[in-house]
Amino acid sequence: MKHKLMGSWEIKKTNSSSALKKFGISGISIVLGLLFAGLFVLITGKDPLQLYSEILQSSFGSFYGFSETLVEMIPLALCSLGVSLAFRMQLWNIGAEGQFCMGAFGATYFALFFSELPKLIMLPLMLMAGFICGGLWALIPALPKAFWNVSETISSLLLNYVAYFWIAYLVYGPWKDPKGNNFPLTKQFPESATIPVFGDTRVSYAIFLVLLIAAAMFFLIKYSKWGYEISVSGSSRKAADYAGMSYVKNVLMVMFLSGAISGIAGMAEVSGVLHRLQQTISPGYGYTAILIALLARLNPLSILLVSFLMGALLVGGFSLQTSGFPSSMVSMFQGSILFFVLAGEVFNNYRLVRKKV
Amino acid sequence: MSLTNRRDSRRFVVMFERVRSMENTPMVEMRKISKEFPGILANDQVSFDVNSGEIHALLGENGAGKSTLMSVLTGLYRPDGGEIYIEGKRVEFLSPKDAVNNSIGMVHQHFKLVQPFTVAENVMLSIKGLKQIYNLKEIEQQIIKQSEAFGLSVNPKAKIWQLSVGEQQRVEIIKLLLLGAKVLILDEPTAVLTPQEAKALFETLAKMVKSGKSVILISHKMNEVLENTNRITVLRDGKSIGTVYTQNTNEKELAKMMVGRNISDPLERKSSRKEEKIFSLDKVSALGNNGLLKLKNISFDIYAGEILGIAGVDGNGQKELAGAVAGLRSIKTGRISFCNRDCTKSGRKKRMNLGISYVPEDRMTTGLAPDLNAYENMALNSYRGYRGCFIRWDKVRKDTDRLIRKFDVRLASTANPVKMMSGGNIQKLLLAREIDSDPLLIVAVYPMRGLDIGATDYVKRLLLEQSEKGKAVLLISEDLEDLLSMTDRIIVIYEGEIMGVVKPSETTLEEIGLMMAGKRKVVSS
Fold first, then answer.
1. B347 in contact with A at a CB cutoff of 8 Å?
2. Which residues of chain B lie closer than 8 angstroms to A228, CB-CB?
3. Is A235 in Cβ contact with B416 (below 8 Å)?
4. B1-102+215-259 and B264-355+439-525, same CATH topology
5. Cβ–Cβ gap B379/A228 under 8 Å
6. Interface ipTM > 0.85
7. Which of A74, A79, B268, B406 is the most buried (most CB within 10 A)?
8. Residues B87-142: tens digit of each pLDDT
9. Is B223 an interface residue toward A (CB < 8 Å)?
10. If contacts are CB pairs under 8 Å, which of residues 236-265 in chain A contact chain B?
11. Among A281, A285, A318, A302, which residue's Cα sits nearest to residue A78?
């Protein structure tokens, strides 16, 4: 179909789109999104360029800033890898935030109540706990989806609040540190329950886990039989049935693994960064992860890149407060970027051409 | 009306029309219509005209541009070039409403009726400028008047869902008549009808043109076009190949115009049926998706080398039957056995391994995963065969390239999602995969539906060739000519029950038609 536009120009549908073109379109969209958000900064009387340079300064300008960006990247990338797996099968798991919390909960349990265990046993145990708790939490919306086709979108979203308040209950109630001056925190983990960090930064060895999971997911999707079943099921459930694939089994497995990876992110956060469980363990990692997965078009390697950039934006956001802006300004930047990237999708399939006369 | 009478009257109409056309302008004239879509010129300077009192057929393969041309005439598309004249007056249609106001109406393949409403209420819906207080009685009376005038018997008080497909089609026609349509466009109207219903439809159309209306018939069935029209315009690749008087042409000439070459000789079928029983259903009943009983007590056997046909009007249990045989639908009662071994309980995966291939009706979303490319789709049956957790894509690629060459599948790039491929090539790809798995039984549901002549011919030959190789084929089709020319036996089903089993050499279209309409075969003893 052709649409009239500005007289001598028109938008034409094309049936192909190269990877390079897609990449370019995403890049231009992100820049336009930042420019658009800059307009709002301009209204407040500040110089948007100066603001952006401050963000860049604080996230990349120093070794410390760079290391902080990596700290933010770890949970973002893990949650995003988790949701991207479910998205690939057209399962809209937007419960990464809750699965992250439950993963943190599972890991904390072992850190608090089996504190005598040596590090070599403790850390794998915490990892398993985070994996299983996050996975089971995602299985709750997956079961009604698999058997009765109940929308997983709503149920996974609502469970985020349940998980959030479960954490709140624990840190205000039974798990509160008696010596913590009544702050909603657990007591600090023993040394055996913390993931080692690089030098004097806060970047934990969990970053290797991120790289490992991203690589594994890349091979899973591209070469494995199961990854193939996920792709077929995501394209057409009828085709999956036709080929004798079990849709129910795949929904359950994909959702479990999706939640489990977000659970690992929760474990990495409490064990690698915070060293305790507290009420505010996530500034919305699980939600930003959805945005990252979409921006990266579900490609595991692109997710690494995009979550690094989003991490930088978050770190920059924290420093914005010193310039008199709320750090939630970053949410507006994210929204603006997503808006432009989604709108830019049109140009993957359409092309602007000069009209023939 | 007997056949000869109808021919005579048609001849008269043609002569009459010739005389008139010298002094009168045509009812509709389309001049040099062009319409471009990305990558294809759907209509390339097509000229076409219809006189009043004429049935004019638009004949052509799929994708020849028939539907595009009619969409331009009904105001759905705006042409990139060309002009439309109605009774000699230049018109420009900005929306379908403009076409309706110019007395042009179309009966689409998929009817636009509200199921829970009555006939009269549906007709009322389409009437523009209805008064606030309407008179349902008056509308009902008008419906009766129109239906009597043209032999469109239908009860105005009946609810749509209670009507047969043929009756629903009549409602659509009445709707157009009451809107004041002088030009009626019918898009493949006989695709959903039994032979008897089709005959009745053409009688109605003959009455309508006698009263001065014009009918445009979109079709790709040469026989019905030859029997029922005055003139035929053939489209191919978006161009008009020419307009001929029906009485001056024949099947061979039309086929040549349609495909641009002589089509190969008619199929020759020698039965290759062997005594070895491959597959049997024993008193099988099954539910449809809506939970109603769609298969009732079905029993039959298929033998090696046999092509067994299933005839019936669409929606009488064909889909459920195919699902039950392929293993996608679990059955309620009865037994299923394959090579004398019970497989009633085994699902699709098991039956695939046993050697049952399945070419489903819905090729684009069931037979193939639309977003995946050709390679990935070719692995749909075979991916489990690789050892370990990984698929060897290099081998899949090699196999796919071989099959694409062997089955002459044409695609722009194997890396594109298959949803970008054309219908004929999609079916070839699917058949290539299903046949390459070397099955014992091939279940093919409407395998020729929507394909052009060339592709249809190819698919038919492929199925015949497979049966000659000793494979059993269950062929579900709505095209009785195909069933008669290809199969060893034909089972006719109606509302999920077997009405009778016939041999193509010992039956007639009429007999099958009656069974399709629910009359059980009389077994003479």
1. yes
2. 376, 379, 383, 391
3. no
4. yes
5. yes
6. no
7. A79
8. 889 999 988 888 988 999 999 878 888 989 999 888 888 776 666 667 788 888 88
9. no
10. 236, 238-245
11. A285
Cβ proximity of A167 and A279 under 8 Å: yes
Helix (H, G, I), strand (E, B) or coil at B108: coil
Q: Which of B349, B368, B384 sits opposite A225 (nearest CB)?
A: B384
CB of A215 within 8 Å of any CB in chain B?
no
C-beta of residue B326 within 8 angstroms of C-beta of residue B358:
yes
- Tell whether B372 is within 8 A of chain A (Cβ): yes
C-alpha span between B206 and B27 (Å, rounded): 17
Nearest-CA distance A232 → chain B (Å): 6
Interval A87-118: pLDDT, tens: 999 999 999 999 999 999 999 999 999 999 99
pLDDT, one tens digit per residue, over B357-409 is 999 988 888 999 999 999 999 999 899 989 889 999 999 999 999 999 988 88
Tell me the C-alpha to C-alpha distance, in Å, between residue B323 and each of B170, B346, B451: 32, 12, 22
Please check whether residue A181 touches B, CB under 8 A.
Answer: no
Side-by-side strand order, sheet with B28-37 = B40-50, B28-37, B81-86, B89-91
**Helix/strand/coil for A207:** helix
Per-domain residue ranges for chain B?
A: 1-102+215-259, 264-355+439-525, 370-437
Yes or no, beta carbons of B369 and A235 under 8 Å apart? yes
Q: Which CATH superfamily is domain B1-102+215-259 in?
A: P-loop containing nucleotide triphosphate hydrolases (3.40.50.300)
Chain A residues lying within 8 Å of B386, measured CB to CB:
225
CA atoms B480, B483, B488, B494: torsion sign:
negative
Chain B contact for A228, CB < 8 A? yes
**Token output for B232:** 């035929």
Task: Give kind and range of the element (H or E) at residue B310.
Answer: strand B307-311
In chain A, where the domains are located = 74-299
Q: Does B328 touch chain A (CB under 8 A)?
A: yes
Say which residue, B196 or A73, is predicted with more confidence: A73
Please determine, for residue B264, whether its predicted confidence score (pLDDT) is greater than 80. Answer: no
Q: How far is A225 from chain B (nearest CA, A)?
A: 5
* Angle subtended at Cα B49 by Cα B48 and Cα B51, rounded to the nearest 5 degrees: 160
Q: What is the DSSP letter of B474?
A: E
- Answer yes or no: do A242 and B372 touch at CB < 8 A: no
Q: What is the CATH number of domain B264-355+439-525?
A: 3.40.50.300
